[in-house]
Amino acid sequence: MLEHIGQTESFSPSDLPFCQHIADLISASIEQALHREEHQAAQAIEEANRLKAELVSILAHEMRTPLTSIKGYSTALLMEEAVFSAETQREFLEIIDEECDVLQDLIHDLLESSIIDAGLLRLEPQPVRLPSLVRSVIEDTSHRAQGIRFLIDFPESFPILDADPDRIVQVFRNLLDNALKYSPQGGLVVVRGELRESEVVISVADQGIGIAPEHLNRLFDKFFRVKSGLGRHVVGSGLGLPIARNIVESHGGLIWAESQVGRGSTFYFTLPLRNRKQEMIEDEREQDD
Ligand code: ADP
Fold first, then answer.
1. Which strands sit side by side in the sheet containing 199-205, from one edge to the other?
2. Nearest CA to ligand 1 atom 23
3. Which long-range contacts (CB under 8 A, 24 or more apart) does 188-192 make?
4. Superfamily for 126-277?
5. pLDDT(123) > 90
6. Measured at the alpha carbon of residue 152, what is the angle toward residues 134 and 281, in degrees to the nearest 5?
7. Where are the domains of the chain?
8. CB of 236 closer than 6 A to ligand 1?
9. pLDDT over 70 for what percent of the chain?
10. Is the model more confident about 68 or about 274?
11. pLDDT of residue 17
12. Does the CB atom of residue 209 touch ligand 1 within 6 A?
């Protein structure tokens, strides 16, 4: 609505050209805004299509490696003309089993990522004791961790957190899987928990190949993968870290990485404390039990 400021009477016919001009300006800016919105919507659709195409091509490629292996070893075991010792047969079956795990992880990442994209990630927070949760994830992971050593370093009285344990397990799994994938034989992986004023900081440090500075802030982008430089193809979806970021951020935390090429990487994430006093009390009470 146009108003004549400071004058009681309304507009006169002589104001018409001015009003017309204002109306033109307003209509042009509305049109521009509509145009911008349409353009942004088209861009969003284009980006979604690009990601979808990328996803299909990456997964097709990444699934081919374990599948080829599974097919090769199972065909060999089924060959009537070949006789393998019990030991070799077991070795083949172990490879098949491991490659099935790789496929399972890829499919799991894919499903998780689509759940997140659809906005369906629902947290079910409950009291979580991080040190014991870390221990159990490491126990689960250790069969894949031949030749890697683990160190868990948490202060003695660590607060009980209000978090979704299944999702936090997922974050640890992704970080630990990466630490294993990119670590040398005999490497050490350290999981550390530190207590700050209003949050806890968790870190997972490895002595692996490291990450170049120009890649560090892209790690959490969907499908971003660095060519491993290990001289072998490392299977992965490029979805593990984006999923971890989403989970950590949904808890009100932050996630980031620090690294030096050839010297290892450390991934950090924070989780907020809801009520520090209450948590310490709960912790002490639990320890008394
Ligand atoms: P994926 O492991 O399936 O490729 P992620 O999203 O978990 O996907 O990781 C993205 C990329 O970040 C990896 O492909 C790898 O290049 C790099 N990366 C992640 N963790 C590490 C690590 N601990 N050491 C070296 N590089 C890493």
1. 149-153, 188-195, 199-205, 264-272, 255-260
2. 179
3. 188/148, 188/149, 188/150, 188/151, 189/145, 189/148, 189/149, 189/150, 189/151, 190/150, 190/151, 190/152, 190/153, 191/134, 191/138, 191/150, 191/151, 191/152, 191/153, 192/152, 192/153, 192/154
4. Histidine kinase-like ATPase, C-terminal domain (3.30.565.10)
5. yes
6. 70
7. 15-120, 126-277
8. yes
9. 89
10. 68
11. 87
12. yes
Q: Whose CA is nearest to atom 11 of ligand 1?
A: 225
The residue among 50 and 267 whose pLDDT is bigger is: 267
Measure 254 CA to ligand 1 centroid, in angstroms: 18
Amino acid at 105: D
- Mean pLDDT for the stretch of residues 176-193: 93
Pocket test for ligand 1, best of 110, 241, 261 (most atoms within 8 A of CB): 241
Euclidean distance between CA atoms 90 and 88, whole angstroms: 5
Q: How far is CA 32 from CA 2, 5, 27, 59, 257, in A?
A: 21, 28, 9, 40, 41
| 197: pLDDT strictly greater than 60 | yes
Looking at 3.20.20.10, 1.10.287.130, 3.90.550.10, 3.30.70.1070, the CATH number of the domain 15-120 comes to 1.10.287.130
- Give the tens place of pLDDT for each residue, 204-228: 999 999 999 999 989 999 888 887 6
